[in-house]
Amino acid sequence: MSPVADFFKNLTLPVMPEVAHELIRSLNDEDVPVPQLRDAIARDPALAVQLLRLANSARYGRSRQISTLDDAIALVGLRQVRALALASCFNDAFPVVPGLDRETFWRESQSCGGLAQWVASGVGSDSEQAWLSGFMVRVGELLMGMKSPSSVIDFERQPSYPGARWEREHALLGFTEGQVSAELARAWNFPDAMVDALNAAAKPMQAQPFSQLGAVLHVAELLAASDELSEDAVDGLPAEVLGALNLDAAWMRSRLPQAQAYVQASTLH
Fold first, then answer.
1. In a designed cystine with 213, which of 108, 197, 242, 265 is the match (CB 3.0 to 4.6 A)?
2. CA separation (Å) from 78 to 1, 18, 70, 95, 126?
3. Which among 84, 90, 72, 82 has a CA at the least distance from the CA of 28?
4. 10 Å Cβ neighbour count for 250?
5. From CA 85, how far away is CA 82, in angstroms rounded?
6. CA 30, 136, 200: angle at the middle one, nearest 5?
7. The pLDDT of residue 85 is above 90
8. Three-state SS for 207?
9. Distance CA 214, CA 228 (A)
10. Burial per residue of 165-193, b for 16 or more beta-carbon CB atoms within 10 angstroms, e otherwise
11. Tell me: the pLDDT tens digits for 180-210?
12. What's the rounded Cα separation, in Å, for the pair 107 and 48?
C-alpha cells in the first residue's frame, strides 16, 4: 500500500453537498445541458446568491442588474460558473485547521487557480481544469491537518520560499498535499487528467507519462507562493519545467499584468 493510500485509511472525508457531486459528474460530460447545471445550483440558495453577486461585481462591467442564474451563466460563462461553484462548495465543506489562517488559505488557493488558468492559456491546456486543479492543489494540506493537526504548523513555519511547503510535507509524511488532493479527486470521481495533474504538481518532471497540466500547476503554485507576482518570481521558475511546457520566461514577464488580472478574476465573492 502506498503512503498516500495508507494515509486515507480511517480518514473521514468532508461531506460535500449534492450539488457539488452533480457538478463533479458534469466535468466528465462536455455536453452537459446548461439548464441541468442551473437547476443544480438553484437548489443551493447560498451558492446561487454568491454567483449572482459575482455576476453583478464590477469586473464584468454589466450595464444592468443580473437577477437570474440564466443571465449570470450567460455573462460569466458556464465553465467558469461551474469551477467557481465547486470551489465555493470546497470552501464550505472543509473545517478550520489549526495553524492555518482560513481566509488567507482560500485566497491563496484562488490565486493559484487564476495563475494556473493564465499559464494554461499560454500552452493550450484546458482552462477550466487548470483553474479548478490549481484551486485544489492545497486542499490536501487541509486533509493532512485533519488527520495530523500539529503537522500543519511544521508545513507553514517561517521563513518560507516557493516550494518549501512541498519539501516539508514530503520530509515529514513522505508525500505532498497535491498527492493527497489527487486521491481525494479520485475518490470523488474527478476527471483522470485532473487526478494525474494533482499527483504530478510537486514534481512534474518525474511524472510518467508527463502531465502538461501537472507542470502548469507546478508553475502556478510557485508563483502563488512568491512574495509578489514580479519578474523576479518568473526568473525563479525552474527552466526544465518551462522548457517542457514550451513556455518562454520573457513571454511570461511581458504579460504579468494579464496574470494579475486572472488572479483578480478568480476571487470568490
1. 197
2. 39, 19, 10, 28, 14
3. 82
4. 10
5. 5
6. 90
7. no
8. coil
9. 22
10. bbebbbeebebbbbbbbbbbbbeeebbeb
11. 999 999 988 899 999 999 999 999 999 999 9
12. 20
Q: Rounded to 10 degrees, what is the CA torsion of 142, 144, 150, 151?
A: -110
What's the pLDDT at 79? 78
CA 186/CA 92 separation, integer angstroms: 20
- For residues 106 and 111, what is the distance between their CA atoms, to the nearest angstrom? 9
All cell numbers assigned to 24:
463533479
pLDDT value of residue 269 = 46
Structural contact between residues 251 and 122, judged by C-beta atoms closer than 8 angstroms: yes
With beta carbons less than 8 A apart as the criterion, state whether 140 and 180 touch. Answer: yes
How many residues appear in the chain?
Answer: 269
Tens of pLDDT, residue by residue over 13-48, are 888 888 888 888 888 776 778 888 888 888 888 888
User: Residues 28, 31, 34, 38: what is their CA dihedral angle, to the nearest 10 degrees?
Assistant: -20
3-state per-residue secondary structure call for 31-58 = CCCHHHHHHHHHCCHHHHHHHHHHHCCH
Provide the pLDDT for residue 214: 97
The grid cell for 134 is: 490549481
DSSP state of 201: S
**Of residues 45, 50, 148, the one with CA closest to residue 91:** 50
